Amino acid sequence: MSDKNTYYLVGVMSGTSLDGLDLALCRFEVTPNSNKYAILKADTIKYPDDLAAQLRSLHKSGAEEFCRTDREYGHYIGKAVNKFLEGQNIVPDAVASHGHTIFHNPADGYTVQIGHGAAIAAETGIPVINDFRSKDVALGGQGAPLVPVGDRDLFSEYDSCLNLGGFANISFERNGKRIAGDIAVCNFMLNMLAQKAGQPYDKDGEMARSGKVIPGLLASLNHLPYYQKPFPKSLGREWVENNLIPMIPEDNDIPDLLATFTQHSATKTAEALQHTDGETVLVTGGGAYNKFLMEKIRAHSQKKIIIPAKEIVDYKEALIFAWLGLLRMTGKINILAEVTGAKSDSSGGALLA
């Protein structure tokens, strides 16, 4: 273990949008009065097409295939970490891996992220923290969001933190408590639609910009029951498949659908921002690069939108999972019941020392 309150961890993140495996080698300097971080190296390993397809459809697999893929994917992560660390004169204290979410159904008491921790540890020879969400779900929580602890500890200079990933989510402070949750679908749906048009994603939102909003579909989306629920709440693939996919008309052009879902995401995000305290909003995640989406959010919100350096836009979640791993290693709280709805705060994550 590092001395003088300095720790080095590799944060590993794979989001629902399946852009690739995000890796961040992070240094943390922890004192009683401050938490300082630095991202020493970061990279995104694009998934091979066959692996991306496998992860996208794994929820339909049988039990044996699921178990095998969990182990194989863990070895894949471990090998990626080894290659990532080549040439670095640092032996990390741990690898903190979120894994890739296959099932997220906290209402029925489960959430599952694959990427077997023992396989990662076997490949790297480094202690591993993974399975961050399960304990919170066992305590009656949503198992999400987990990032707000990092928002509070590492990005407190901003009034709110907005992440535009597969789903848009927000975190902010009010009366000494953290409030957070998923707002609406974002890149999960936008990428899915773009891929139907032969593109991996809608670059700069240009396809959406060329389309026309479908008024009836937009109205139906905006009035889904999820939006009447207070935080804490979270979204997953299952919600999209059960609620959004059946709403999509078969005879509409992809640009029109993209225009509609972009407007929907922007409207719901702006509404959520209006209910936060303060003015400054840090925006990260792939959606921060979607110029059309950001224009729409700004048009509907009076908040001061701040898009940071590319390193933070791309790797904030990997950085924060490294931080959550450090908190778990040192026996500190890394999941807040006030944002997940659990019975109590907890220190989540399976530690393989």
Walkthrough of the structure:
The chain is an alpha/beta fold and 353 residues long. It contains 13 helices and 13 strands. It has two domains: 6-142 and 314-352, Nucleotidyltransferase, domain 5 (2-Layer Sandwich), CATH 3.30.420.40; 148-311, 2-Layer Sandwich (Nucleotidyltransferase, domain 5), CATH 3.30.420.40. The strands form three sheets. Strands 3-2-1-4-7-13 form a six-stranded mixed sheet. A five-stranded mixed sheet has the order 10-9-8-11-12. Strand 11, helix 11 (291-300) and strand 12 (304-306) form a beta-alpha-beta unit. Helix 6 (187-196) packs antiparallel against helix 10 (254-274), helix 8 runs parallel beside helix 10 (254-274) and helix 10 crosses helix 11 (291-300). The radius of gyration is 19 Å and the shape is globular. The N and C termini lie close together (11 Å).
How would you summarize what this structure contains?
Helices cover 39% and strands 23% of the residues. With 353 residues, the protein is of the alpha/beta class.
CATH fold call of the largest domain: Nucleotidyltransferase, domain 5
- Name the helix and strand elements from N-terminus to C-terminus, one letter apiece: EEEHHEEEHEHHEEEHHHHHEHEHHE
**Percentage of residues in helical conformation:** 25-40%
CATH hierarchy, class of the largest domain: Alpha Beta
Principal-axes geometry comes out as globular
| Helical/strand content category | alpha/beta
CATH superfamily of the largest domain: ATPase, nucleotide binding domain
Q: What oligomeric state do these chains adopt?
A: single chain
Task: State the separation between the terminal residues, measured CA to CA.
Answer: 11 Å
Instruction: Write the CATH architecture name of the largest domain.
Output: 2-Layer Sandwich
Number of domains: 2
Number of discrete helical segments: 13
Low-confidence stretches: none
Arithmetic mean pLDDT: 96
**Count of strand segments:** 13
How big is the Rg? Answer: 19 Å
Strand content: 15-25%
Widest β-sheet, arrangement of strands: 3-2-1-4-7-13
Major β-sheet, in short?
A: 6 strands, mixed
